[in-house]
Amino acid sequence: MAERNYTRQLATIISIDAVGFSRLMGIDDELAVAAFEERRDIISDSCGAFGGRTFGDAGDSIMAEFGNPIEALRAAFDFQDRIVALNAAVDEHMRMPFRAGINTGDVIVREGRLYGDDVNIAARLQEFAPHDGVAISATTWHHVKDKTSAVFTDLGEFSLKNIALPVRVLIAGRGGNGGPAATASFASIPATPGHFRPIAKGPPAIAVLPFQGNGSEPDVGYMADGIAEDIIYGLSNTRWLSVIAKGSSFQFRDDSLGTRLIGNALGARYIVSGTLARSDRQIRLNTSLTDTSNGRLVWSQRFDRDLVDIFSLRDQIGSEIVSILDKEVDRAEQARTFQVPWESLETWQLVRRGRWHMNRRTRRDTEIALDFFDKAYQEDPNSSAVLNELAWWYFWRAWLRFGDSDDLEKVETLARKALLMDSLDARPHAYLGAADIMRGQPALAAEHLAEAIHINPSFAFARSAMGSAHLLLGDATSAIPFFLDTDRLSPFDLYRFHNLGELAAAYCFVEDWPAAIATAERSLNLSPGYFYARFLKIGALMRSGRRDEAARELAIFMTRHPDFSEQRIRWIPFVDPAKNNFLIANFDLAKSAA
């Protein structure tokens, strides 16, 4: 019998590939080789600094081995940052970005080289990574998710070439604004099998990505965002088309992932993207519509306009997209969909600047946002857009203050005035409904929210609030579909943790304990400090007979929330106090067993 001359071990593998190497070789082969070697040395240095080693260089590809997945991810971020800085110092057409794929698993080691499916998976993963980005497998994610500040975007499961089982792929980026590959936050890995996330039954969904701003003009960025937001709003008013919420689609500012992967992540069959350039008083918008199921470009067009014609752009683009998707859409309905009262250009710019700051979600930025909205209000106190932004701002602050009555009064005043300006706007109805929920009036809230959903069936916020209204009224069965629709329409929403927490509560009331536990866990993956989701999870674990797990979760809960009182649960305005008692009793089972 031949002597075995290899070993097996657990390792984390990074597969690293140069992007555009062949193109650069065609331009200047000697310069391309020199550039590759310079960047290869950077990769080798970073890997060594974090306890790894490179092996198996082949052409424009490099492999690296690590014993620790966390150090592997840190090394990838480090060499990507250094290569980005190096590329910035050369002409754009001579830049050589890299992409990386990371996988953790069992490998065969022989004479310093590594073999096995898990090595091959790493090589396939790098094909999913954006330029200067990092793709990782779910196995690596499970090791790093709670131990780094990185953020993750789930692309779904894929069947990889010559790999027997599907592999779930995620894009990793630095947390906050810390790196070029920063991506949308990722909460939990859904258990959907298959090559692509299945498209929901019914009409196709469409996502409008943030338009890219080109040129040196300082206001191009917020103008590009503003036009894209306007198109989302116009499309959302159609009755037959599902539109992915801006809070999710705007996470994908870097379109180097490609429309097929972005569409899969968002659950959208169609993607609208574009670029905006401004020169003096002229603007040029290039926009396109892509079918994500096959990557085919369905429609594209260039629009050159004077800056004062910016509003007509939205009308034209939105109408063309609707007509492309369904030739039978009535022209009159198209026209009505995109006819809303418009404010002056100056007011429009103030609103868009305020939104830009609001989306940054820092305390200072939200204060600046209010300044812009107030200035817009002074310019045009009858603008429905301005009134809606102010209503949302005060609702946001009321939510942070646990239902501040003064702020809720401002929400109602502003929302009712907005309705006088535009009775076909769904937002004021939704804000009135949300304010009524916080006041403990779910029946009245449901009336406002039903009108909001009738006007805009794709309004994720309104659907989530309607679910909460049904829940407070004691009808958990009716609430569940609204929460599920919200998760579909806005899968990367900033407040997704709250919607999932409400869904977990609904599952508790119908006594579907496994679903309650899994949903609460998804909420906690998004926001580990969300007390309500962990409270619900503890009760559901006890009802499922999983006492040891409940005890561990209870210990975490008491550490995070030492001042917790059951009054926080009694504050939830269920119409029937027995609902509050039911949730508290579930939790008390764990306290009694401790």
Question: Which structural category do the helix and sheet elements fall into?
Answer: alpha/beta
**Percent of residues in helical segments?**
40-55%
Radius of gyration: 26 Å
Name the poorly predicted regions. 177-202, 326-338
Compute the number of helices: 24
Name the assembly state. single chain
Average of the residue pLDDT scores: 82
Strand percentage: 15-25%
Categorize the overall geometry. Answer: globular
Number of E-state strands: 14
N- to C-terminal separation? 58 Å
The main sheet comes to: 8 strands, mixed
Domain Guanylate cyclase: 12-126
Organism: Mesorhizobium argentiipisi
InterPro entries: A/G_cyclase, Adenylyl/Guanylyl_Cyclase_3/4, Nucleotide_cyclase, TPR-like_helical_dom_sf
Protein name: Adenylate/guanylate cyclase domain-containing protein
Structure description:
The structure is a single chain. This protein has 24 helices and 14 strands. By secondary structure, it is of the alpha/beta class. Strands 1, 2, 3, 4, 5, 6, 7 and 8 form an eight-stranded mixed beta sheet that branches. Strands 9, 10, 11, 12, 13 and 14 form a six-stranded mixed beta sheet that branches. A hairpin with a 2-residue loop joins strand 12 and strand 13. About 7% of the residues have low confidence.
